[in-house]
Amino acid sequence: MSKKNDGGYAFPMEATDATAWRDCNQGMTLRDYFAAKALSGWLASYPESCTHPIVAGNADEVAKHSYMLADAMLRAREAS
Prior knowledge:
By secondary structure, this protein is an all-alpha fold. 50% of the residues lie in helices and 0% in strands. It has one domain (23-79). It is elongated, with a radius of gyration of 16 Å.
């Protein structure tokens, strides 16, 4: 089973010595960062004439689709 491409760390830090990586938390992955950006953009631009997906009880679907967009961004990034 292969590991899902997460794009690596979104904001990696340079190691200052041989032990720095062991002691350092690198934070969110690029996949998480892309999903968060997709989520905020999508929800902020939702038309007022429609029931907002969160209000409609579709939070799980919204999150799932945000990660689908993030995965598409990672594939596009690899292809370029």
